[in-house]
Amino acid sequence: MSMKYLIALLCVLYINAAVAGVYENNVKKLVDYDELDENDKMLGFLWKDFNINSSEKITKVIIFISTEKNFLGKWTGAWGSSTSVAPAYWTMTDDMSKSFTTKTGKIMWELDSATSKIIQREYGGELKWGVWWIDCTVFTIDKIVVFTDAYKGGYPDDKEDEEEKAEKISAGVYKAHVGDSYVYKDLGTEKMLPINWSKFTIPKTETITSIEITLSTKKEKLGKWQGAFGSSTNIAPDYWIMTKDMSKTLSGTTDSITWEVTAEEAKALQSQNDGQLKFGVWWIDCGEFTIEYCTIRTDAAK
């Protein structure tokens, strides 16, 4: 047996080994958001199916989701559970949201001690995960992992993935590495590619003046791009803003495209939370490309 194979085998054994205080439910459930009950968008899972030791208290739950679409996009929803407290026998988190630029993601519920004490796991008790909205619409719940007070570490996926943050490279200039690669023919109908606003920590006192996307390709050159920019906003009813169609011929293997943001647009941008900036690609000659960086400039830039 080669050393490389042995190491790989040991890794698999480690990941699949029983870890104290960790209970997995490999759900493998395909969900179509459009088919959810209009009045109840909470998906239920029986607590008994997790086989949790009755003496242990639940401290954390993580759901693992994935999609065959280009990316999960923005999720909004909540967690809930049966409880032992009358009259509702039910507890529920505040609304939550998280944005993903990837095909896979994790969403976590950390229970405070008071909530942990009242969770009802018997008599048909349920854990519920709500989906008020998710951009990809069709996704798979791969598994749900429950952690209890018996957990002392050792499970490789016990936290949400940390997002790489933008660097402030000078006054009013914020540069974030993106590194997401795309094949144009696989984009389908969703040709607007997301970058999370949460990558950027832009002071509320600064006004965004431009957004620059840096692209690269392994082909001979990027060629002609046609598309647009868009962003989440705080303005009803669409909560969305979008530029007019744009185009640019990119002669090299690396080049940038800029959205010069007007004062009116800047006021609308929802850049302080987990909304998304989107870069539209209606066409690009090279067919395969990577969004390398997103650079944002504000009125504080020199």
What does this structure look like?
By secondary structure, the protein is mainly beta. The protein has two domains: 131 residues, Jelly Rolls, CATH 2.60.120; 132 residues, Jelly Rolls. 9% of the residues lie in helices and 47% in strands. It has three helices and 20 strands. Strands 1, 2, 4, 8 and 10 form a five-stranded antiparallel beta sheet that branches. Strands 3, 5, 6, 7 and 9 form a five-stranded antiparallel beta sheet that branches. A hairpin with a 7-residue loop joins strand 5 and strand 6. The protein is elongated. The chain starts with a helix and ends with a strand. 26% of the residues are buried.
Lay out the secondary structure.
Layout lengths: L2 H14 L5 E4 L3 E4 L9 E5 L11 E9 L6 E10 L7 E3 L3 E5 L3 E7 L2 H6 L7 E9 L3 E11 L18 E4 L2 E11 L8 E5 L11 E9 L6 E10 L7 E3 L3 E5 L3 E7 L2 H6 L7 E9 L3 E11 L4
Antiparallel strand pairs: 1-10, 2-10, 3-9, 4-8, 4-10, 5-6, 5-7, 5-9, 11-12, 12-20, 13-19, 14-18, 14-20, 15-16, 15-17, 15-19
